[in-house]
Structure formats: C-alpha cells, structure tokens
Write a structure and sequence with these properties.
This protein is 48% helix and 14% strand. It is built from 17 helices and twelve strands. It is globular and about 60 Å long.
Length: 365
C-alpha cells in the first residue's frame, strides 16, 4: 500500500461526524478515500447521510496533516494499518455494519483464522474465575482456536496469559492507541503477545484509555469472533456489553454459571436464565456446541451437500474451481467485485469446507 493511499484512508477516519457507517457509504459512492477528498461539494451533498458540516470538513482537508503524523508512527513501529477493504482486515467484522473503517495491528497473528473465541469477564476475578478461565483455555488448546480478549485486569489478562503459556495465538483489543498500554502492569504480557498473537486497536496514537472507548473496543471483540465465553461478571460491565453485542451479530454466546448471590456471578447467571447464553462448564462444551469435534473430512462432505451460497460466493467458487489455484488479487480483478466482498465470501467458503487457503494468499477448491 502506498503512503498516498494510506494518507487518505486515515484522513477519512479523522473527519468529525462521519463515523464508520457513513465512511463506508462515502467509499462506496466515490470509489476510494482519495476520491472522497477530491470530490466536488455538490456531489458530496447528494450522498445520503452526509450533511453540510461533514462536507465542509472534507473540503477543508486539514485532517490530512494529522494523518501524516500517524503514518510516521506506523512506519517507525512496524504497525500494520488495515483499512476495511484490505484483504488482511478481519473478514468477520465486514458482516458488522458498525465495524471500524481502519484498524492498527502490531503482531504476527492471522486475523482471519478458522476459529476464534473471546474470553471475557470481570476485572475483579476470584480464584474460581481464574481457575475456570485456565481450564477453558487449556481444553480449547487442541481445537485450533485463537483467543481474543481486551487485555484488562482479571479474566481478560488471565485468558491472554494462559494462551501465551499454552502456545495459543491470542490478540488483545485495546481501547487506546498503540503508543501506550493500559493497564501498565500488563506490559510484559503484551510484549509476549506481540510475538505470539498481537495487539489490535482502531484508535490513533495519543488516544487515552477513556471510558467511552471501551464499548467501542467491545464491539470489535464481539465482531471478530465465532463465540464468546463470559467467565464471572456482574449485571453491568464490559463483559455483558460484549455478550449483548455478540448476540446482535449472531455470534454464539456461552456463560459459566456461578453461585447464586455472588456478585461476580450475577451477570453470567442472568445470561443463562434469559437464554442469552448457553451454559458452559468447559471448553469441550463450547467445542461440542460449535461442531468443532467433528472430523474435517466429515464436515467438508456434509457442508458441500447442503450449503446455501450467495450469488457472489457461487461466482467466486466457480472461478477457483476453474483455475485450480487462484490469489485474492486475481479474484478481485477477474470478478469485478470489491475486495471486501471477496474477503467475506472466501471466509464463508472456507468455513463451509468448500475451499482451502494456501500459503501466499492462494485458494483452491
């Protein structure tokens, strides 16, 4: 990616009043972030949801100076900037209307693995909660699962730490920029995670861990996963928000039951009681409900018989079958589809067992 392209991508995220949904709408209408900044005022005003004040800010282009500063940090610290049209952007987030326009990633992990589980919970974890967390991570170790959480105190940190110790890829989603770390006590853990996983955020440098950032962080956690496990939570807090968001994104939600009356168990018990979450006592329960205990060959043959594909997915599958092996760039050019749609379709086809991913971003049927 050229710095010129990146400049306008970051600049788009900096325009006050635009947001993720309208930002994607602007890209769809204009064709690219650079084209947005070069568009005429009258044309911009015709785009639904884009008002006069937003257009004034686009025409002004003052945000590009701040974007230049961010690019310098990105280059100096080997950060991977991921615009939502980038093939490495977490494809599960493309199915979330409010998914971030841009993400910043520091690490080695694949952000589009076959299986992703979030483990979240209270910052005031008890010994029971920590023990349960360790057992869940341990029992998921052989399921090929990536672990995601928010790198907060308590259950989040416990999940990351156990994943690192068990050799499992783990990603911490942050509520601030990559130029700082909150809580600071997790710095050594974060350094280990970067080598076996990574840190991910939508926030620019110089962004503090302010309270309003964490619900936004939680929507990324909820959108990047196949399932979330809540281990200890009161009736209010980030873990319950993540569970609610996961339900709204049609992700699977599991909760570990606790003793009636325990403050840190009220949230989990509430989720189970109101059918917002399935009861889970171990990672094996999660694997069973998710169908991850099946043999891959069995799953592939079953899925290929009954899967219901969209028109785009069928088109891409036929192209892969015709070529034998094909790369994402070729698919984008030959299909005429946006890279975001290609990435989402490839992920679904791989989930259904109809294609395999190969080194070098190649795919075969």
């Amino acid at each position: 990616m050229s710095n010129d392209e990146l400049l306008y991508q970051i600049g788009l995220t900096l325009i006050p009043g635009i947001g993720d949904v309208n930002g994607k709408r602007l890209v769809a209408y204009c064709g690219s972030p650079k084209a947005i900044f070069g568009e005429k005022r009258q044309s911009l005003l015709k785009i639904p949801g884009i008002g006069q004040s937003a257009v004034n800010r686009i025409i002004n282009q003052s945000v590009l100076k701040r974007a230049e500063k961010e690019i310098a940090f990105i280059e100096k610290n080997s950060i991977s900037p991921l615009f939502f049209t980038n093939s490495d952007y977490p494809a599960r987030l493309l199915n979330c209307e409010d998914g971030p326009l841009m993400l910043y990633f520091l690490g080695q992990a694949n952000l589009n693995p076959a299986r992703v589980v979030a483990i979240v919970g209270t910052r005031r974890a008890t010994n029971y909660g920590k023990s349960s967390c360790n057992e869940f991570v341990e029992s998921l170790r052989d399921k090929g699962v990536q672990i995601i959480s928010g790198l907060a105190y308590g259950i989040d940190s416990c999940a990351h730490r156990k994943a690192v110790d068990s050799g499992i890829e783990t990603i911490g989603v942050l509520g601030h920029g990559l130029d700082r770390l909150y809580p600071a006590q997790n710095r050594k853990l974060a350094e280990k995670m970067i080598r076996k996983g990574g840190l991910l955020t939508e926030f620019l440098t110089e962004t503090n861990p302010d309270r309003e950032n964490f619900p936004k962080r939680n929507r990324i956690v909820a959108g990047m996963i196949d399932a979330v496990i809540v281990i200890e939570s009161d009736r209010k807090g980030g873990a319950l928000i993540t569970a609610e968001l996961a339900n709204s994104y049609n992700r699977d939600v599991f909760a570990v039951p606790g003793r009636v009356g325990d403050e840190v168990s009220r949230g989990c018990n509430f989720l189970i009681k109101t059918n917002r979450a399935a009861l889970a006592e171990s990672g094996n329960d999660v694997a069973y409900f998710m169908g991850w205990d099946e043999k891959p060959t069995q799953r592939k043959s079953q899925k290929s018989l009954f899967v219901d594909l969209s028109e785009d997915e069928r088109k891409i599958l036929e192209m892969i079958k015709e070529k034998g092996e094909i790369g994402i760039d070729t698919l984008v050019i030959d299909s005429g589809l946006p890279s975001s749609k290609i990435a989402a379709a490839l992920l679904n086809l791989e989930f259904e067992g109809l294609i395999e991913s190969l080194p070098g971003k190649l795919y075969k049927a």
